[in-house]
């Protein structure tokens, strides 16, 4: 990561102008830490210049501890290959050795010896030829290891070319376009031309060795074959690449070496696919790299690179170090390096042994297959292959019968030995199925990533590599810490998200309907206040122009053909604010603490909030040029302007789309506090109106208004957000409360809130909440109470309907503008490890699926071996 120098003064100046940041803290204090500790030790500590006087260690700890608490939860980070957990004893060993420098061999000879033993073990694991002298080194990760592997190939090629009197200034290297950035970095940093072999979707987005051949010539220093593509987990075919290069050599005399990028695969293949030939058994493989910090199961900061024989390392690359009377050699980019990761790697080798690594690889692959099968049989197409059986062939006849290391529970799973399936990493790469996309064309795959993030899971959605760039891929890396229980939960959440986006009653739905109207709106007059002469934002009791009071809003809200929401700018600011609070809420909840979201309604985002009209059904309500006249009074003078439905269905001064739109409305602070508008209430009311609007098939709005509708729905979803609660089974109920410094809103909300909370609690406890939630934000169903219902029952049913369920509309159009419901999370449902409510239909479906799937039956007989 490259970081730029930050000038604190400049930063403060910029923040004064920034629409979101300017309110975050007192201007003058932005360059300083804000500590919460009672002794306030950190309050004078600058952030971007070194403090003159240091902090007590406790305060420094507290500051950084708090700041790093904002990081994501590594357990739920399914985006990363990097390992996140080691046993207590390993942690102890790491702490004991964290002050040792691996390169100080004189001072720390033990670390050096352990390093050498690691190389020997890895050489053995990767089947290094007995006759050769395997040589290798620890690195910071696979990236450094790849640089060293590439450099060695370059030097060897140059040497050979020099010897033959040929040009040695134009080296190139060949690898698939699916390569991790480290490979391209090597090429750029070391002046080697990159020859990217485009990949194909049908190949699983990996390099086809046959395609690679055409990129090779006499200047090719080597081919890098990837054992475990970062995109899909597929293994590229090292053996085939080698065979084709043998044939090439026979035809042309070109002798092209292979480097295997086994960043992840070199710690999976030896244990899970022992018969797969990808390592030093293939004579053309001259070097292999791996990441100790991926499936080597060590914390970040460790990679390895090994050469099949020391002759592959040019003498110019190797530096001599003399210590304890003997000579040691180094080939690294860095001189100093921490010894602790190397020691931690040896801890794993000793503690797990071959069988331990094998068990973990099997378990990871089993869980990955479970996820793959669940996704493949529902709304997704799985692009990774590790769940597809190979019925015949050499690979399936591997050591699948060697199950002696498994006992008890593991043996029950023995029927799904990975060797029965296509080899690959425990990675699940998937995309929405064509059928799902056809039936739900409005759904964007990236929403799945965002919605899973709201549930705590980090599942990236990214573009496929060159050659298949039109495809987006969602990817889950299954690591040791992703247990079967968590996997089941993940399946429920992914399917639940896919289901919640289906149909028309979703917060994102229907935006495609307006596609015909989508066009760049840049030239069109923006609905700025300047477009309207009398618009004024002056504060004071004598407000003029288009300003909106609470009562006016209430009146407009009653009119079914308008939605009134905030402007895009205000919505974006509010989304930011609520998002930050939601993250904190989730964080605290997962730590087992309670948290009440705080929104300062006296803050400028709220007091300067601006609003816009969204005309609904304009073709019906404003036919044939009829429109709306808006009046404004300044002193004695009253002015007005007439607005009609323009060609793009927005309200404008004329029907042309270049006419100014209806201006934004401000809501200045009134002397009479009860007249002040709360933008949250506006948005929550608009949310109800827009949800209903989008249920109507023929409902259309122009792109700008569609954006406003989308943002309004997004903000409401965030306001209704419920945090993911961890397995800790937090029993305490967490209430969302909008705290503000004007209590007239609170006064109005209180009775309804109290009633709703009590009722919700009752409903949950009495189990009157079975059935599918059908998109309800409450997460459960409140059935229609029927004609003899009490007022309370009827109100509860109304609240349920307002929460976004897709039940039919109520028979009458009576008062639907109760105050917004706030989510209540009561975790008295022991059956859910997370305490989150879930759509019953999805979880039931998953359970059914699990029980009918090919997966091992937990009650099946234990296979005796
Ligand atoms: C195939 C591949 N090569 C290289 C790397 C870089 O590894 P590291 O992060 O250990 O430098 C990665 C990282 O994900 C990878 O997947």
From TrEMBL:
Catalytic activity: L-glutamate + H(+) = 4-aminobutanoate + CO2
Basic and acidic residues bias spans: 513-531
A Pfam family it matches: Pyridoxal_deC
Basic residues: compositionally biased ranges: 18-32
Entry keyword Lyase: yes
Annotated GO MF terms: glutamate decarboxylase activity; pyridoxal phosphate binding
Family under the similarity heading: Belongs to the group II decarboxylase family.
NCBIfam families registered for this protein in UniProt: Glu-decarb-GAD
Protein name: Glutamate decarboxylase
Annotated organism of origin: Candolleomyces aberdarensis
């Amino acid at each position: 990561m490259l970081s730029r120098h930050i000038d604190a003064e400049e930063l403060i100046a910029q923040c004064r102008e920034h629409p979101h940041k300017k309110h975050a803290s007192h201007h003058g204090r932005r360059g300083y830490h804000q500590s919460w500790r009672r002794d306030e030790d950190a309050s004078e500590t600058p952030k971007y210049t070194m403090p003159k006087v240091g902090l007590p260690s406790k305060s420094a700890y507290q500051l950084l501890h708090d700041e790093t608490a904002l990081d994501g939860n590594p357990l739920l980070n399914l985006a990363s290959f990097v390992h996140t957990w080691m046993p207590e004893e390993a942690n102890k060993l790491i702490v004991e050795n964290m002050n040792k420098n691996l390169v100080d061999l004189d001072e720390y000879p033990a670390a050096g010896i352990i390093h050498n033993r690691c190389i020997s073990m890895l050489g053995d694991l990767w089947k290094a030829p007995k006759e050769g002298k395997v040589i290798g080194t620890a690195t910071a990760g696979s990236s450094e290891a790849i640089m060293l592997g590439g450099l060695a190939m370059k030097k060897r090629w140059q040497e050979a070319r020099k010897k033959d009197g040929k040009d040695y200034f134009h080296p190139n290297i060949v690898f698939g376009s699916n390569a991790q950035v480290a490979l391209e970095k090597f090429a750029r940093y070391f002046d080697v031309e990159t020859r990217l072999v485009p990949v194909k979707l049908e190949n699983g987005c990996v390099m086809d060795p046959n395609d690679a051949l055409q990129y090779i010539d006499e200047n090719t220093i080597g081919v890098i074959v990837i054992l475990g593509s970062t995109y899909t987990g597929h293994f590229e075919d090292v053996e085939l690449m080698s065979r084709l290069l043998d044939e090439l050599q026979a035809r042309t005399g070109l002798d092209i070496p292979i480097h295997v990028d086994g960043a992840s695969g070199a710690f999976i293949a030896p244990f899970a696919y022992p018969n797969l030939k990808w390592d030093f058994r293939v004579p053309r493989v001259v070097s292999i790299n791996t990441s100790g910090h991926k499936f080597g199961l060590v914390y970040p900061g460790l990679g390895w690179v090994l050469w099949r024989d020391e002759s592959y390392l040019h003498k110019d690359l190797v530096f001599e170090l003399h210590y304890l009377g003997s000579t040691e050699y180094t080939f690294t980019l860095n001189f100093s390096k921490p010894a602790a990761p190397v020691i931690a790697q040896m801890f794993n080798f000793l503690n797990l042994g071959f069988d331990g690594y094998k068990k973990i690889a099997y378990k990871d692959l089993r869980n990955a297959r479970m996820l793959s099968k669940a996704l493949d049989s529902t709304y997704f197409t799985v692009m990774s292959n590790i769940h597809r059986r190979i019925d015949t062939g050499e690979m399936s006849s591997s050591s699948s019968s060697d199950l002696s290391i498994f006992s008890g529970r593991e043996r029950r799973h023995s029927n799904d030995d990975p060797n029965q399936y296509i080899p690959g990493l425990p990675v699940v790469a998937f995309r929405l199925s064509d059928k799902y996309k056809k039936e739900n064309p409005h759904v964007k795959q990236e929403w799945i990533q965002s919605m899973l993030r709201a549930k705590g899971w980090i599942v990236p959605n990214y573009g496929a590599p060159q050659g298949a760039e039109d495809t987006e891929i969602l990817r889950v890396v299954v690591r040791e810490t992703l247990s079967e229980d968590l996997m089941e939960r993940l399946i429920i959440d992914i399917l639940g998200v896919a289901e919640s986006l289906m149909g028309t009653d979703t917060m994102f739905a229907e935006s495609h309907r307006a596609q015909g109207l989508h066009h760049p709106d840049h030239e069109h007059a923006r609905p700025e206040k300047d477009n309207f002469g009398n618009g004024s934002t002056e504060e004071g009791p004598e407000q003029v122009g288009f300003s909106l009071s609470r009562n006016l809003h209430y009146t407009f809200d009653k009119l079914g053909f308008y939605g009134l929401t905030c402007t895009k700018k205000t919505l974006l600011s509010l989304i930011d604010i609520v998002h930050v609070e939601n993250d904190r809420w989730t964080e605290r909840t997962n730590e087992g603490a309670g948290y009440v979201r705080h929104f300062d309604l006296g803050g400028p985002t709220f007091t300067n909030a601006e609003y816009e009209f969204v005309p609904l059904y304009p073709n019906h309500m404003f036919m044939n040029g009829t429109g709306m006249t808006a009046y404004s009074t300044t002193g004695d003078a009253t002015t007005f302007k007439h607005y009609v439905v323009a060609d793009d269905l927005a309200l404008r001064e004329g029907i042309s789309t270049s006419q100014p739109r209806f201006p934004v409305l401000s809501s200045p602070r009134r002397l009479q506090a009860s007249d002040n508008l709360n933008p949250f209430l506006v948005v929550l009311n608009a949310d109800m109106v827009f949800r209903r609007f989008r249920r109507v098939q023929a409902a259309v709005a122009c792109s700008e208004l569609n954006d406003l509708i989308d943002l309004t729905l997004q903000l409401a979803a965030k306001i209704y957000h419920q945090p993911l609660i961890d397995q800790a089974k937090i029993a305490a109920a967490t209430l969302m409360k909008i705290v503000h410094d004007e209590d007239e809103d609170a006064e109005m909300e209180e009775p309804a809130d109290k009633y709703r909370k009590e009722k919700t609690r009752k409903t949950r406890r009495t189990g009157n909440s079975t059935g599918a939630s059908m998109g309800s934000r409450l997460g459960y169903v409140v059935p229609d109470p029927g004609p003899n219902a009490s007022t309370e029952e009827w109100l509860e049913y109304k609240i349920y309907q307002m929460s976004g369920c897709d039940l039919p509309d109520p028979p009458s159009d009576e008062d639907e503008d109760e105050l917004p419901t706030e989510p209540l999370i009561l975790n008295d449902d022991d059956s859910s490890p997370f305490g989150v409510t879930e759509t019953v239909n999805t979880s039931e479906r998953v359970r059914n699926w699990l029980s009918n799937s090919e997966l091992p039956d937990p009650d099946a007989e234990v296979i005796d071996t």
